[in-house]
């Protein structure tokens, strides 16, 4: 896989505060990654390094093969960025604002108008930004980040202020970019939103990258139990089958059992599926919230 963003042994200090401590990871094209961590974990510092707004004290950052903090960062026009709190000139209209950023990226302003429609702002394109709601300003920020078909898109809490319908549209746009080969990195606290969308997760804690990988890889590393919920037929008499060995917790309709790994899960499913008293099976793998809490506890120990 070609690497579009490479972070190697990066450290960044703010006085006595160690914002980043030996962080290393690679991001590739055509993948949506999630950067998660509590406030102060180092997420925004990492994004600033990738944008070239600050320079690492130690280690190296490369974006599209270049040092973003170098004076001549020619790949800058191929980056898109949406900050957590967008701020635009309140006296300009939405169309004028987008035209300004289009000129900065050296693209024709007219090519930006479809983006206003894509984020649901065409009806307000000629209104002053000062009259926009927070959600509308966030939409304008997203349109700005999408200018010029970015190859690397960095998003800091991007769905703040967006209604559910626009959140769905937002992720549809990101999927289109990813499928077009872009590298998409989302820094967010909305773990439930990212669980079924992020193909790669980076977990930060107090400046350290404590875990990274796909959800399947993180679950394998964490070794958290898998919950298997089994509903039993009413005629079962409330007595669990012998193969349950009296384990698990009783529920109004059956039993919830905890299994330590995939192999035990599959063995349990084979037995349960062959028992006519089992009317329904639900599997609840550890969520991203569960994994996040686990790795933070492990790192704090």
Automatic annotation (TrEMBL):
Domain ABC transporter: 5-231
PROSITE patterns linked: ABC_TRANSPORTER_1, ABC_TRANSPORTER_2
Name of this chain's protein: ABC transporter ATP-binding protein
Top-rank taxon, per record: Bacteria
Summary of the function given for this chain in its UniProt record: Involved in beta-(1-->2)glucan export. Transmembrane domains (TMD) form a pore in the inner membrane and the ATP-binding domain (NBD) is responsible for energy generation.
Record keywords, A-Z: ATP-binding, Nucleotide-binding, Transport
Pfam family, one: ABC_tran
GO MF terms, alphabetically ordered: ATP binding
Family: Belongs to the ABC transporter superfamily.
């Amino acid at each position: 896989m070609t690497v579009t963003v490479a972070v190697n042994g990066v450290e960044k200090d703010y006085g006595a505060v160690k914002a980043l401590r030996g962080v290393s990871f690679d991001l590739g094209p055509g993948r949506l990654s999630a950067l998660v961590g509590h406030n102060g974990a180092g997420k925004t510092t990492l994004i600033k390094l990738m944008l070239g707004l600050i320079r690492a004290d130690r280690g190296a950052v490369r974006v599209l093969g270049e040092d973003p903090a170098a004076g001549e960062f020619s790949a800058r026009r191929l980056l898109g960025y949406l900050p957590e709190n967008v701020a635009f000139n309140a006296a300009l209209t939405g169309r004028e604002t987008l035209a300004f950023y289009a000129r900065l990226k050296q693209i024709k302003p007219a090519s930006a108008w479809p983006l206003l429609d894509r984020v649901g702002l065409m009806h307000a394109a000629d209104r002053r930004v000062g009259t926009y709601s927070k959600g509308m300003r966030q939409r304008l920020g997203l349109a700005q980040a999408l200018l010029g078909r970015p190859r690397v898109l960095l998003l800091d809490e991007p769905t703040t202020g967006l209604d559910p319908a626009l959140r769905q549209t937002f992720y549809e746009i990101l999927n289109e970019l990813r499928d077009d080969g872009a590298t998409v990195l989302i820094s967010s606290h909305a773990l439930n939103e990212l669980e079924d969308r992020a193909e790669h997760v980076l977990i930060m804690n107090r400046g350290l990258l404590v875990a990274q990988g796909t959800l399947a890889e993180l679950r394998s590393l964490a070794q958290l139990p898998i919950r298997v919920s089994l509903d039993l037929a009413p005629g079962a008499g409330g007595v669990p089958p012998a193969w349950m060995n009296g384990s698990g917790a009783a529920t109004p309709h059956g039993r919830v059992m905890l299994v330590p790994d995939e192999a035990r899960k599959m063995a349990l499913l084979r037995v349960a599926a062959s028992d006519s008293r089992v009317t329904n099976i639900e599997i609840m793998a550890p969520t991203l919230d569960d994994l996040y809490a686990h790795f933070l506890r492990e790192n704090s120990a």
